Protein backbone atom coordinates (compact mmCIF):
# COMPACT_ATOMS: atom_id res chain seq x y z
CA UNK A 1 0.00 0.00 0.00
CA UNK A 2 1.18 3.50 -0.84
CA UNK A 3 1.09 6.13 1.92
CA UNK A 4 1.19 9.83 1.01
CA UNK A 5 1.57 12.80 3.33
CA UNK A 6 -0.44 15.97 3.01
CA UNK A 7 2.57 17.82 1.59
CA UNK A 8 3.17 15.09 -1.01
CA UNK A 9 -0.45 15.18 -2.14
CA UNK A 10 -0.37 18.98 -2.32
CA UNK A 11 2.70 18.92 -4.56
CA UNK A 12 1.15 16.37 -6.95
CA UNK A 13 -1.98 18.37 -7.83
CA UNK A 14 -2.04 21.36 -10.17
CA UNK A 15 -5.03 23.72 -10.41
CA UNK A 16 -5.49 22.81 -14.08
CA UNK A 17 -5.62 19.09 -13.29
CA UNK A 18 -8.05 19.63 -10.42
CA UNK A 19 -10.33 21.64 -12.73
CA UNK A 20 -10.30 19.06 -15.53
CA UNK A 21 -10.92 16.15 -13.17
CA UNK A 22 -13.77 17.97 -11.43
CA UNK A 23 -15.46 18.70 -14.76
CA UNK A 24 -15.31 15.01 -15.67
CA UNK A 25 -16.53 14.03 -12.19
CA UNK A 26 -19.57 16.30 -12.58
CA UNK A 27 -20.42 14.64 -15.89
CA UNK A 28 -20.03 11.13 -14.49
CA UNK A 29 -22.12 11.94 -11.44
CA UNK A 30 -24.95 13.58 -13.39
CA UNK A 31 -25.05 10.73 -15.93
CA UNK A 32 -25.62 8.20 -13.10
CA UNK A 33 -22.89 6.01 -14.56
CA UNK A 34 -21.45 5.45 -11.09
CA UNK A 35 -23.12 3.54 -8.24
CA UNK A 36 -24.84 5.83 -5.75
CA UNK A 37 -22.34 7.29 -3.28
CA UNK A 38 -22.60 7.07 0.50
CA UNK A 39 -22.51 10.08 2.82
CA UNK A 40 -22.74 9.62 6.58
CA UNK A 41 -22.48 12.38 9.19
CA UNK A 42 -21.77 11.43 12.81
CA UNK A 43 -21.75 13.66 15.90
CA UNK A 44 -21.29 13.23 19.62
CA UNK A 45 -21.38 15.57 22.60
CA UNK A 46 -18.83 13.96 24.92
CA UNK A 47 -16.08 14.18 24.02
CA UNK A 48 -17.28 16.75 21.47
CA UNK A 49 -16.56 15.92 17.87
CA UNK A 50 -17.89 14.61 14.63
CA UNK A 51 -17.11 12.96 11.35
CA UNK A 52 -18.27 13.09 7.76
CA UNK A 53 -17.64 9.86 5.87
CA UNK A 54 -17.88 9.88 2.07
CA UNK A 55 -17.59 6.78 -0.10
CA UNK A 56 -17.77 6.27 -3.84
CA UNK A 57 -17.32 3.32 -6.15
CA UNK A 58 -16.24 3.37 -9.77
CA UNK A 59 -14.93 0.45 -11.80
CA UNK A 60 -12.20 -1.29 -9.85
CA UNK A 61 -11.76 1.55 -7.37
CA UNK A 62 -13.43 2.35 -4.08
CA UNK A 63 -12.67 5.61 -2.29
CA UNK A 64 -13.54 6.15 1.38
CA UNK A 65 -12.77 9.50 2.97
CA UNK A 66 -13.23 10.52 6.61
CA UNK A 67 -13.29 14.20 7.56
CA UNK A 68 -12.94 14.50 11.34
CA UNK A 69 -13.24 17.39 13.76
CA UNK A 70 -12.81 17.63 17.50
CA UNK A 71 -11.59 19.75 20.40
CA UNK A 72 -8.61 17.85 21.86
CA UNK A 73 -7.78 20.67 24.31
CA UNK A 74 -11.33 21.44 25.39
CA UNK A 75 -14.34 23.28 23.96
CA UNK A 76 -12.77 26.72 24.55
CA UNK A 77 -9.62 25.83 22.57
CA UNK A 78 -9.35 25.84 18.77
CA UNK A 79 -11.09 23.07 16.88
CA UNK A 80 -8.87 20.52 15.14
CA UNK A 81 -9.80 19.06 11.76
CA UNK A 82 -8.19 16.21 9.86
CA UNK A 83 -8.93 14.03 6.86
CA UNK A 84 -7.82 10.63 5.60
CA UNK A 85 -8.68 8.96 2.31
CA UNK A 86 -8.32 5.28 1.44
CA UNK A 87 -8.29 4.09 -2.18
CA UNK A 88 -9.14 0.40 -2.53
CA UNK A 89 -8.68 -1.99 -5.45
CA UNK A 90 -11.96 -3.90 -5.68
CA UNK A 91 -10.45 -6.62 -7.90
CA UNK A 92 -8.02 -7.70 -5.19
CA UNK A 93 -9.94 -6.42 -2.15
CA UNK A 94 -6.74 -4.69 -1.02
CA UNK A 95 -5.93 -1.04 -0.36
CA UNK A 96 -3.93 0.77 -3.03
CA UNK A 97 -3.21 3.90 -1.04
CA UNK A 98 -3.81 5.90 2.11
CA UNK A 99 -3.70 9.66 1.69
CA UNK A 100 -3.64 12.49 4.19
CA UNK A 101 -6.34 14.51 2.53
CA UNK A 102 -6.57 18.02 3.96
CA UNK A 103 -4.82 19.58 0.96
CA UNK A 104 -6.60 17.03 -1.26
CA UNK A 105 -9.95 18.43 -0.08
CA UNK A 106 -8.85 21.98 -0.84
CA UNK A 107 -7.78 21.07 -4.38
CA UNK A 108 -10.95 19.06 -4.96
CA UNK A 109 -13.24 21.89 -3.88
CA UNK A 110 -11.25 24.54 -5.73
CA UNK A 111 -11.18 22.52 -8.94
CA UNK A 112 -14.93 22.02 -8.75
CA UNK A 113 -15.57 25.73 -8.32
CA UNK A 114 -13.34 26.60 -11.26
CA UNK A 115 -14.96 23.93 -13.44
CA UNK A 116 -18.41 25.37 -12.70
CA UNK A 117 -17.15 28.89 -13.34
CA UNK A 118 -15.89 27.87 -16.78
CA UNK A 119 -19.49 27.05 -17.70
CA UNK A 120 -21.37 29.78 -15.85
CA UNK A 121 -19.18 32.91 -15.68
CA UNK A 122 -20.19 35.90 -17.80
CA UNK A 123 -18.24 36.35 -21.06
CA UNK A 124 -15.02 38.25 -20.49
CA UNK A 125 -15.04 37.73 -16.72
CA UNK A 126 -11.90 39.32 -15.30
CA UNK A 127 -12.73 40.58 -11.80
CA UNK A 128 -12.96 38.20 -8.85
CA UNK A 129 -14.28 38.92 -5.36
CA UNK A 130 -13.09 36.30 -2.87
CA UNK A 131 -14.82 36.02 0.49
CA UNK A 132 -12.78 34.10 3.04
CA UNK A 133 -9.03 33.74 3.47
CA UNK A 134 -8.54 30.19 4.71
CA UNK A 135 -6.97 27.18 3.02
CA UNK A 136 -9.85 26.57 0.61
CA UNK A 137 -9.84 30.25 -0.34
CA UNK A 138 -6.14 30.05 -1.23
CA UNK A 139 -6.63 26.95 -3.38
CA UNK A 140 -9.74 28.45 -4.97
CA UNK A 141 -7.89 31.64 -5.90
CA UNK A 142 -5.17 29.64 -7.62
CA UNK A 143 -7.75 27.55 -9.48
CA UNK A 144 -9.63 30.64 -10.65
CA UNK A 145 -6.39 32.23 -11.81
CA UNK A 146 -5.69 29.09 -13.85
CA UNK A 147 -9.19 29.19 -15.37
CA UNK A 148 -9.46 32.92 -16.18
CA UNK A 149 -7.10 35.76 -17.15
CA UNK A 150 -7.97 37.69 -14.02
CA UNK A 151 -7.25 41.40 -13.94
CA UNK A 152 -8.30 42.15 -10.39
CA UNK A 153 -8.94 40.19 -7.20
CA UNK A 154 -10.45 41.70 -4.07
CA UNK A 155 -10.32 39.63 -0.89
CA UNK A 156 -12.68 40.22 2.03
CA UNK A 157 -12.58 38.27 5.30
CA UNK A 158 -13.79 38.52 8.87
CA UNK A 159 -10.07 38.37 9.70
CA UNK A 160 -8.56 41.37 7.89
CA UNK A 161 -5.01 40.29 8.70
CA UNK A 162 -5.58 36.93 7.01
CA UNK A 163 -7.04 38.65 3.94
CA UNK A 164 -3.97 40.88 3.71
CA UNK A 165 -1.65 37.90 4.15
CA UNK A 166 -3.41 35.99 1.38
CA UNK A 167 -3.35 38.99 -0.95
CA UNK A 168 0.39 39.45 -0.43
CA UNK A 169 1.12 35.74 -0.90
CA UNK A 170 -0.94 35.43 -4.10
CA UNK A 171 0.12 38.58 -5.98
CA UNK A 172 0.78 36.48 -9.08
CA UNK A 173 -2.91 35.59 -9.47
CA UNK A 174 -3.72 38.88 -11.20
CA UNK A 175 -2.17 42.30 -11.90
CA UNK A 176 -4.10 43.63 -8.89
CA UNK A 177 -4.68 41.47 -5.80
CA UNK A 178 -5.69 43.32 -2.66
CA UNK A 179 -7.52 42.92 0.61
CA UNK A 180 -10.55 45.12 1.26
CA UNK A 181 -12.26 45.85 4.55
CA UNK A 182 -15.77 46.23 3.13
CA UNK A 183 -17.44 43.12 1.61
CA UNK A 184 -19.84 45.41 -0.24
CA UNK A 185 -16.96 47.01 -2.10
CA UNK A 186 -15.68 43.61 -3.19
CA UNK A 187 -19.13 42.41 -4.30
CA UNK A 188 -20.11 45.53 -6.22
CA UNK A 189 -17.27 45.38 -8.75
CA UNK A 190 -16.99 41.63 -9.38
CA UNK A 191 -17.83 39.46 -12.38
CA UNK A 192 -17.32 36.35 -10.23
CA UNK A 193 -17.98 36.23 -6.48
CA UNK A 194 -16.55 33.21 -4.66
CA UNK A 195 -17.58 32.43 -1.08
CA UNK A 196 -15.34 30.05 0.86
CA UNK A 197 -16.25 30.92 4.42
CA UNK A 198 -17.43 29.30 7.64
CA UNK A 199 -20.25 31.83 7.96
CA UNK A 200 -23.82 30.75 8.73
CA UNK A 201 -25.32 33.93 7.28
CA UNK A 202 -24.94 36.05 4.15
CA UNK A 203 -21.43 37.45 3.75
CA UNK A 204 -22.27 40.42 1.49
CA UNK A 205 -25.42 42.30 0.42
CA UNK A 206 -26.86 40.69 -2.68
CA UNK A 207 -28.51 43.85 -3.97
CA UNK A 208 -25.13 45.25 -5.05
CA UNK A 209 -24.25 42.24 -7.25
CA UNK A 210 -24.20 43.07 -10.95
CA UNK A 211 -26.70 41.54 -13.37
CA UNK A 212 -25.15 38.52 -15.07
CA UNK A 213 -22.51 37.94 -12.40
CA UNK A 214 -21.64 34.48 -11.12
CA UNK A 215 -21.80 33.61 -7.41
CA UNK A 216 -19.94 30.47 -6.29
CA UNK A 217 -20.89 29.09 -2.86
CA UNK A 218 -18.49 26.64 -1.18
CA UNK A 219 -19.42 27.03 2.50
CA UNK A 220 -22.65 26.70 4.50
CA UNK A 221 -23.16 22.99 3.88
CA UNK A 222 -25.98 22.68 6.42
CA UNK A 223 -29.64 23.09 5.70
CA UNK A 224 -29.96 26.03 8.11
CA UNK A 225 -26.86 27.97 6.97
CA UNK A 226 -26.27 30.22 3.99
CA UNK A 227 -23.68 32.50 2.42
CA UNK A 228 -26.05 34.15 -0.12
CA UNK A 229 -28.99 36.32 0.90
CA UNK A 230 -32.50 36.58 -0.52
CA UNK A 231 -31.54 39.51 -2.72
CA UNK A 232 -29.24 37.21 -4.68
CA UNK A 233 -31.52 34.19 -4.82
CA UNK A 234 -34.49 36.30 -5.94
CA UNK A 235 -32.51 37.27 -9.08
CA UNK A 236 -30.65 34.00 -9.63
CA UNK A 237 -30.66 30.91 -11.76
CA UNK A 238 -29.13 28.12 -9.65
CA UNK A 239 -27.08 24.97 -10.21
CA UNK A 240 -25.32 22.56 -7.81
CA UNK A 241 -23.02 19.56 -7.99
CA UNK A 242 -25.63 17.19 -6.52
CA UNK A 243 -29.39 17.67 -6.42
CA UNK A 244 -30.24 15.67 -3.30
CA UNK A 245 -27.53 17.12 -1.09
CA UNK A 246 -28.04 20.65 -2.37
CA UNK A 247 -31.75 20.56 -1.55
CA UNK A 248 -31.15 19.03 1.90
CA UNK A 249 -27.80 20.43 3.02
CA UNK A 250 -27.39 23.55 0.90
CA UNK A 251 -29.10 26.13 3.07
CA UNK A 252 -28.69 28.80 0.39
CA UNK A 253 -30.98 26.80 -1.88
CA UNK A 254 -33.20 25.02 0.64
CA UNK A 255 -34.13 28.16 2.56
CA UNK A 256 -34.72 30.22 -0.58
CA UNK A 257 -37.00 27.57 -2.09
CA UNK A 258 -38.90 27.11 1.16
CA UNK A 259 -39.57 30.85 1.50
CA UNK A 260 -40.51 31.28 -2.15
CA UNK A 261 -37.58 33.63 -2.73
CA UNK A 262 -36.16 31.23 -5.34
CA UNK A 263 -38.67 30.34 -8.05
CA UNK A 264 -38.49 26.53 -8.52
CA UNK A 265 -38.35 27.17 -12.27
CA UNK A 266 -34.94 28.80 -11.82
CA UNK A 267 -33.49 25.78 -10.00
CA UNK A 268 -31.61 24.00 -12.80
CA UNK A 269 -30.22 20.98 -10.95
CA UNK A 270 -26.81 19.41 -11.51
CA UNK A 271 -23.98 21.22 -13.25
CA UNK A 272 -22.86 17.95 -14.87
CA UNK A 273 -25.91 18.04 -17.14
CA UNK A 274 -24.51 21.13 -18.90
CA UNK A 275 -22.28 20.36 -21.87
CA UNK A 276 -21.88 24.03 -22.84
CA UNK A 277 -22.48 27.44 -21.25
CA UNK A 278 -26.20 28.27 -21.15
CA UNK A 279 -27.43 31.30 -23.12
CA UNK A 280 -26.96 34.59 -21.31
CA UNK A 281 -30.20 35.98 -19.88
CA UNK A 282 -28.92 38.76 -17.62
CA UNK A 283 -29.70 36.88 -14.41
CA UNK A 284 -27.23 36.26 -11.65
CA UNK A 285 -26.00 32.68 -11.80
CA UNK A 286 -25.36 30.71 -8.62
CA UNK A 287 -23.43 27.46 -8.18
CA UNK A 288 -23.62 25.59 -4.89
CA UNK A 289 -20.77 23.18 -4.09
CA UNK A 290 -21.49 20.41 -1.61
CA UNK A 291 -18.87 17.91 -2.80
CA UNK A 292 -19.42 14.59 -4.56
CA UNK A 293 -17.68 11.23 -4.27
CA UNK A 294 -16.87 11.20 -7.99
CA UNK A 295 -14.51 14.12 -7.40
CA UNK A 296 -12.70 12.18 -4.68
CA UNK A 297 -12.55 9.09 -6.88
CA UNK A 298 -11.04 10.75 -9.96
CA UNK A 299 -8.63 12.98 -8.06
CA UNK A 300 -7.42 10.08 -5.87
CA UNK A 301 -6.75 7.94 -8.94
CA UNK A 302 -4.79 10.81 -10.47
CA UNK A 303 -2.70 11.49 -7.36
CA UNK A 304 -1.88 7.83 -6.76
CA UNK A 305 -0.94 7.22 -10.40
CA UNK A 306 1.41 10.20 -10.38
CA UNK A 307 2.97 9.18 -7.08
CA UNK A 308 3.56 5.65 -8.31
CA UNK A 309 5.06 6.87 -11.58
CA UNK A 310 7.40 9.29 -9.79
CA UNK A 311 8.35 7.03 -6.88
CA UNK A 312 6.81 9.36 -4.30
CA UNK A 313 5.47 8.16 -0.95
CA UNK A 314 6.07 5.28 1.41
CA UNK A 315 5.31 1.67 0.52
CA UNK A 316 3.91 -0.37 3.40
CA UNK A 317 2.94 -4.05 3.44
CA UNK A 318 -0.16 -3.72 5.56
CA UNK A 319 -1.36 -7.09 4.26
CA UNK A 320 1.10 -9.83 3.45
CA UNK A 321 -1.16 -10.75 0.53
CA UNK A 322 -0.23 -7.44 -1.15
CA UNK A 323 2.59 -9.15 -3.07
CA UNK A 324 0.61 -12.27 -3.88
CA UNK A 325 -0.01 -12.96 -7.57
Describe the protein's architecture and organization.
The structure is a single chain. The protein has 325 residues and is an alpha/beta fold. The chain folds into 2 domains: 2-104 and 293-323, ornithine cyclodeaminase, domain 1 (2-Layer Sandwich); 122-288, NAD(P)-binding Rossmann-like Domain (Rossmann fold, 3-Layer(aba) Sandwich), CATH 3.40.50. 34% of the residues lie in helices and 26% in strands. The chain contains 10 helices and 15 strands. The strands form 2 sheets. The chain has an 8-stranded parallel β-sheet with strand order 9-8-7-10-11-14-12-13. A hairpin with a 4-residue loop joins strand 2 and strand 3 (49-58). The chain is globular, with a radius of gyration of 20 Å.
Query: Structural class of the helix and strand makeup?
Result: alpha/beta
Q: Any idea what the shape is?
A: globular
Q: Gap between N and C termini, in Å?
A: 15 Å
> Mean of residue pLDDT?
94
Amino acid sequence: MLILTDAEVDALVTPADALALAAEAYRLHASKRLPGPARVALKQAAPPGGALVLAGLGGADLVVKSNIHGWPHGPDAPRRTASLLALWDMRTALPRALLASAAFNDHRTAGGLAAAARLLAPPGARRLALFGAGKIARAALRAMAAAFPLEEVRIASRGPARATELAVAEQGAAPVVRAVADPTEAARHADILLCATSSDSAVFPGDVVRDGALVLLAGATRGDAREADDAIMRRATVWADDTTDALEKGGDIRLALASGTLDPGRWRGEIGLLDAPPPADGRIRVFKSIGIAAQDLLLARHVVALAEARGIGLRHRMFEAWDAP
